[in-house]
Amino acid sequence: MNLLSEFERIFGEYGGEIAVAMGETGYMVLVSIVVAIVFGTPLGTLIYLTREGGLMEQRTTWTIANLYVTIVRSFPFLLFVVFMIPFTRAVFGTSFGTVAATFPLGFVAVAIYARFTEQILLELPSGLTEAAASMGATIPQTVFRFLLVDGRSGLVYALTSATISFVSYSTVLGVVGGGGVGDFAMRYGYHQYDFMLMYVVIALIIVCVIILQSLGHRISRALDKR
Fold first, then answer.
1. Average pLDDT over every residue of 42-61
2. DSSP 3-state of 163
3. pLDDT tens string 31-41
4. Sign of the CA dihedral 131, 137, 139, 140?
5. DSSP per position, 43-68
6. For residue 167, with 0-12 CB atoms within 10 Å meaning exposed, 13-18 middle and 19 or more buried, which class applies?
């Protein structure tokens, strides 16, 4: 088999479809990243603050927030997507399409990154909050000027790991018409017995993950001032 001729065939015949699929995956992952940062960071911080011995110890709040994260993260993703279909349909009027398919992924993204955020904050030196308190810092000031500043390198590193998970999860969303490279690889590669096409698409996913991981690690190291 001539690999060069196979690549020419694949990109000549499916180049446009591959580009569209990459765009769909990019959309799902980008939305998941934004949702994880906007909602996952505050949720993880809330779990950290309201835990036993935390700055805002509140058992009921901690239980509800922690239960959400635990349940969503432990749910098999494919079953979670199916479980969310009625809610997705209620919000978007349909459960099919890239935009609608991203809805359940957003819930998972929040849960994943909230747990990461909590773990990063728990790993910070205990003296950090004591130092903030000695300076008369309020809880919001402690969070934004001390905890999140000291934890920014770890938070970026965690977001990198979470993003790689989002890429993996996005490949499942073809079951609800989400599209993306995973769905493309299955429909045009596996189901049509064009295994070379499937391997090429898998290679593209791997390359994207390597680039994301390298970029995330560089940013994380740049932010680490220790």
1. 94
2. helix
3. 999 999 999 99
4. negative
5. HHHHHHHHSTTSTT--HHHHHHHHHH
6. buried
